Amino acid sequence: MVTDLLYNPGPNTIHGISRLRGGGKIESQREPxxxxxxxxxxxxxxxxxxxxxxxxxxxxYTSIASLSSISPSQLAxxxxxxxxxxLEILKTASDGSRLESTGSSRTIxxxxxxxxxxxxxxxxxxxxTTSCADLDYILGGGISCKEVTEIGGVPGIGKTQLxxxxxxxxxxxxxxxxxxxxxxxxxxxxxxxxxxALQIAEACSDDMVEYSCLYRKGSQACEVKRQPKDFxxxxxxxxxxxxxxQIALINYLEKFITEHKDVKVVIIDSVTFHFxxxxxxxxxxxxxxxxxxxxxxxxxxNFGVAVVLLNQVxxxxxxxxxxxxxxxxxxxxxxxxxxxxLHWNGNERYAYxxxxxxxxxASAPYSVTAKGIRNSASNNKRIKHT
Amino acid sequence: MGALKSLKEEYAIIDANFLQFCASHxxxxxxxxxxxxxxxxxxxxxxxxxxYRLKQGINQLLSIIExxxxxxxxxxxxxxxxxxxxxxxxxxxxxxxxxxxxxLHEGHVTELVGPSSSGKTQxxxxxxxxxAMKLGSVVFIDSGNSFSPTRIQQIxxxxxxxxxxxxxxxxxxxxxxIDCHAVFDIYALLNVLHQLKLKLKSQTGxxxxxxxxxxxxxxxxxxxGGSNAQGHALMxxxxxxxxxxxxxxxxxxxVTNHMVxxxxxxxxxxxxxxxxxxxxxxxxxxxxxxxxxYAVQILRHPYMASGRNANFMIP
Lengths: 386, 315
Fold this sequence. Notes:
The complex is a heterodimer.
Chain A: H1 12-20, H2 24-30, H3 34-37, H4 50-58, H5 65-68, H6 72-79, H7 83-97, E1 113-114, H8 115-123, H9 133-138, E2 148-153, H10 159-169, E3 182-187, H11 194-215, H12 228-233, E4 235-239, H13 243-259, E5 263-269, H14 282-303, E6 306-311, E7 313-318, E8 321-326, H15 329-332, E9 338-345, E10 348-355, E11 363-369, E12 372-375
Chain B: H1 16-24, H2 30-34, H3 38-45, H4 51-66, H5 75-85, E1 88-89, H6 94-99, E2 104-105, E3 109-113, H7 120-134, E4 137-142, H8 149-160, H9 164-176, E5 178-182, H10 186-202, E6 208-214, H11 216-220, H12 229-248, E7 252-257, E8 259-261, E9 267-269, H13 272-276, E10 281-288, E11 293-300, E12 309-312
Parallel strand pairs in B: 3-7, 3-10, 4-5, 4-6, 6-7
Antiparallel strand pairs in B: 1-2, 8-9, 10-11, 11-12
Helix pairs in contact in B: 7-8, 7-9, 8-9, 10-12
């Protein structure tokens, strides 16, 4: 009840406060000073529902300290709400003052992590391979879990191929240096081809057999070949037909991943499609997109999943010439932690790291083969059809 | 200051009668009392039988309020405070420090603004590493999953310039000095800042030198605009909290902001006009992709000419 309003300070909230302020006389006196007072009211900063905040404020509880010493039953009486609801409010409020009792702990604020601890943690993190050694090399081993990676490029460059490849590769068991996870594939354009996924899965399972032949001859006998169909079973596919569905699904993902803890990658192909049409109100679009970006970041961080967003390109005019840029505009460009741009260079496909807080910008060639994404070799260079 | 009720035990004059009288005027807290017209309040006591006692109560409240404001300072004291408590933190990047005459100012909110991949996060990392190595604690509030301990490790190694085997001690100490918070909504940010404020107030021995919020705009963008006035109120409230922390506890604050297309297609800093006056210093970053050089320009500074710029490299 408290949490459903937590991340949604919808337009109704401000009316909620004024409605619950009680008599009209009081309201007319408070109205002009409300905006100025907003910064003095600590309870406004608590993630409570608008009506609860309204009740607290009109009963005079504006600071968190004022809530620390009060008994729940007394507060319930004053706010005219149930005692269970009061307990929830007090719990939320005490999160703010808890640190005083844990003053001896090393981190300053509850929930913080020192960079040193994070470094130790990061070193144990397994990355998802792209099946292309050159690409893995510039990515520092593959697609990073806990981060949002955006991949963009012109149509036909292999975005969806890379997406399917990652959905398969995330399932490589840890014995083989993989994650042994599952994948969520969100398809907005209808471009996911299950036949293609099967091909890639077959190639991946063949590679695994080859690997076990090479490196673990002793245990080869007891290895049971992983069936390509098992790979398909572990890809959770969602088809999304409008932007509202897309937002609803992303809101639901948190619950879905809580239930399916072994999901290690979420692929959205493409994040752009529904947002590039039917939008008159661009300010609304920016709000929706940035809200969605934060939710995806949160998902990546809290559950340690890799979020991969596939994006389309658009032309942008600057400095007197047109050049290609990723779609969805300037604000969206901050939504991802890493950004990889796929492009043609002559007849070869190249991936270029455009943005990353930890990796150098670099580019590497790759190719799309019958088996999936592989290293680019001069003998299997694909001819670009124009 | 909170509810009037909390004063009941300390001051005899503020009794149940007085509280009831205040409640009938919609006054429940000291803040309510402050914004209420005192003369109308006094006038309305006249009709009541215990008017003398109520007026005493009002006087008592007024005198309590008088003791609450911050003490005054004159210019000389302010200058002394500047010199003694508000130092400059080096960012670890020479030309950047030269441009800012020493680096990031304690007590100032410095905003780094620039388009995507213009080096904002890298400057933050560099400043955080440098301060953590040489001066003290850093709090890094990360809203973009961009905090990379591996990158910090590289930068610390670069700054110290020592050999691999010698660096381990420095590295561990520096990295333990950086605390990272992942926040993904504005309430979480407010909560962290509020906890920091309480912590700094209650623990005298503890000192944070630098707080970085990377990025502030991605937290505010989803709630700003439209018919939602509360989003605006939250933004202003974050701004004031940042300024208060910086000033009271002599902390250098760095926030990052992105850019949006303004009139005529030129880029301008996001978050609009009311955010504009929150940061003391506003620096615009840009990257020259061809030469791999970053540039910084002063857009706003309390005492330096805007428009000055410098180039710098990221190791």
